[in-house]
# Entry
Amino acid sequence: MVQLLGLVITLINGLLGLIIWRRLRAALPRHRRLVDALCAAGWLLPATPALLMAVASFSGLRALHRHTPDTLSMLAMGAQVSLLLYGLLYGIAAVARAALRALRARRRATGAQAARANDGAAAAPLPAGAPHPAGAPPPAAADVPEEPVDERRRNLVVAATWALPAAAVAVSMGGVLASRQRPVVVRLALPVRREMTALHGVTIAQLSDVHVGNYMDAERLDELRDAMNALRADIHVITGDLLDHHVSQLELSTRLLRGLQPARGQLFFCMGNHEYIAARSASIPAIMKGLEEAGAQVLVDEAREVRLGGDRLWMGAIDYPSRARPGEPARRPTVDGLARALGQMQDDGAPRILLSHHPGTFRAARELPFDLMLSGHTHGGQISLGRIGDYALTPMLPAGLYHNGLYEHRGRRLHVNAGAGGWLPVRINCPPEITLVELVPA
# Structure
């Protein structure tokens, strides 16, 4: 599947590259050699990641990350997004042009029809059967003068030839820089009973989708650690994908975990799909043991009681919803995992919080008795055009509904964290995120 995706992207890259090359050659006929050289070099930069995917699946991308400097690798991925963004803009412009031409043609046809009707009404009708007057010329359509060449319009077309690629490159490369910015803090209030005074003001900081090893080095991890600790949250939670693809990333991952300082000393962790991917180079028990030795309480379809003064809350977590691969332990169906975790939480009025890496779990859980689900996985789409109701306008929209921000269904709440890292080092209107949940009196 990954190789097929790489092949499709490569074909799209080739088509878009051809479109840009032809448009630039037509706009700059005196500089065709320069255009040829620039287009060839510019196409190779974004084409490399997709070609590696097509040939060697994820192994090709990992080789790119391992054997090229981060700056060059990030430029290549940013250039790929630039090319796809150009394709999107070009497609929107082409549809708009086609619609405008159709509208103009319809107006001309309507105008010509009206003109013929007026001419027919103005002409005196001949008697029935009377011949056409001798020597009279047959009716002819009105001469349409040729429109003069509009030099201003021509210059605008040439400028647009440059403007679309330039805009795509500027936005995408700005997204590369945005992916490295300090994470924003998204604040969320969770109402609890007024009589549970020991819970009022308690805070929970959520980190998700760090992807250690994938554009996430030790320096960047230290920034995330400092940002989390600066919030002075009582409890820390990590909702999966701390590792990216190999057990060797466990060392930096546990270094981050040991550096986290929740005020009440509690750090909870739920498994993401990339923890299972990393386990293929070792084993699930080895990954979980490393995380737990670093201070994380790894919850797999289970719940824990968290005592806070004279009150308490319940913290549970759901395993990543996927069938086990060869060599992996069998995983429970999501419905069974939810029943198991929620079954360990007493229905005593204390807030019940669920961690689930995949936000799609909310669809199966939203009729069950819990208060808040914290998820990740989607990276917020990484490219966001805003949100209309529950529909976030991102590339993830065709794959599912829940992929950025807060959702609610009959009192059950889901918050999808936009992630701190990502396998694609580009974020447009979707900065890295830390979620801070505060328990407030209802």
